[in-house]
Amino acid sequence: MDLIGLRIRNIRKIKQLTLKEAAKGIISVPYLANIENGVKVASFETLMHIAKRLEIPEEALLIGNEDLNKELLQELKQIFDLLVFSNTKEAGDRLDQIAANVDLLCESPVIELSFYWLQAGFYYKTWEFSKAREIERKYLNSNEKRVVESFPPDLLSYYYYGQAVKHSHATCDYQLAVEYWEKSIDLTDKAAFQVVFQVGLCINYICLNNYEPALKHIECAWNLIKRFPSKDQERITAILYLYGYINFQIGFMTEAKRKFEEVLVFFNMYPEAKTMYSFLVRFKLAEIERVEGNHELFDEKIVCLYEELMAHEASEIGFNNNDYLVITELMVIFAEQGSVLEASNLLAIINKVTEQVMEINFFVTYTETLLLYHQNKQSSYEKKMLDLLKKIDESNDPALIERVKKHASKHFADSTKYKMAYNILA
After folding, report:
1. What percent helix, strand, coil does the chain show, rounded to 5?
2. Domain boundaries, the chain
3. Quick one: how many helices (H) and strands (E) in the chain?
4. pLDDT tens track of the chain, all 426 residues?
5. CA gap 302, 306 in Å, rounded
6. Of 367, 396, 397, 401, whose CA–CA distance to 384 is shortest?
7. What does the alpha-carbon distance between residue 154 and residue 205 come to, in Å, rounded to a whole number?
């Protein structure tokens, strides 16, 4: 009856019963707490009384891990595969089918917890953060020490993966995300999973502006994937893109350009990868032109990207997460240039995203601030900019921090507020 205590705790909290209310007339409060925490094992009779108190079928607390529904367990494993390989549409559909057709209280706690960890991971991966947090609050918030002690390997995999995605996307605690990606790697012997997890590690080290380990992990992913048959090498596009991105960040523009152009070649082999990375790669190629001083060509490329993004928006096909990264970057560039219409249109697209990654919020606020500046609303601009300056150092994007502070400092210097301008850059 491993993990039954977690089920008791979850149901008790959903029914808003205190430990004292749930234990009254059955066992002592400390004993019930120990059952919930997995320290004590409840007797058959005690579980029947607790089930009655919680107003649930006795079977919900009497089923054990030896009673696993193997068919459902296999379904959950397949859903995990879909999540790892970013097939979120099918993963979401299959999770919905389980939610609609399976009474999880009649399944073992391992299956119930597996479902909720996968569901939370799905919501974090698709940026539906409030739904993910609600799942965690209802069913999953417990002492992590018990996770390591009690969870079987599959369930532990779902937990580590979900936490890695959560801290990569929602909390932006990239160091913690790194720890969970590393745990995910340690737990699997599947080379295809390891490729995805190594890529996850690389991305989070990039977010930490720590490029040496980022390069090490993308090299690990490269060494793994090149052994795969060509039909299974779709993620080579992500790996090459990250190679290019790291080289761009450390100033090796020739190598960065070569890697990005290699990605474009692979689009012909892997159309799905083109959907995920086309805007992103072409934006980085445009940025290389800017860095190399080809400003006219840079402007041509970003205008072309803008027009394609607006056409894509009109088609109602929908954007992926990588597209939103490009939209936010372009939005700020146009806002800095004073291209109010273009910046406003891109801002409108981003504002349709109901739950945004924290980093995107900084880009949104900066764009809104710049639009006030170009609309000559000086007092509103200054108020919003000062509010942004209070929190911009929390951003993980040094370039954005520098851009915000430079714009603010120049404005206040032009307004003869020299001390304020100096303090911003100090």
Report:
1. 80, 0, 20
2. 4-62
3. 24, 0
4. 457 887 888 788 888 889 899 889 888 988 888 888 777 888 878 888 888 898 887 777 777 666 678 899 999 999 999 999 999 999 999 999 999 999 888 788 888 889 999 999 999 999 999 999 999 988 887 655 565 667 788 989 999 999 999 999 999 899 999 999 999 999 999 999 999 999 999 999 999 999 999 999 999 999 999 999 988 899 999 999 999 999 999 999 999 999 999 999 999 899 989 999 999 999 999 999 999 999 999 999 999 999 999 999 999 888 998 999 999 999 999 999 999 999 999 999 999 988 877 789 999 999 999 999 999 999 999 999 999 999 999 888 888 999 999 999 999 999 999 899 989 988
5. 6
6. 367
7. 26
How far apart, in whole angstroms, are the C-alpha atoms of residue 136 and residue 63?
23
Nearest Cα to 31, choosing from 52, 46, 16, 51? 46
Superfamily designation of domain 4-62: lambda repressor-like DNA-binding domains (1.10.260.40)
Question: With contact defined as beta carbons under 8 Å apart, do 95 and 137 qualify?
Answer: no
Cα 91 to chain center, whole Å? 16
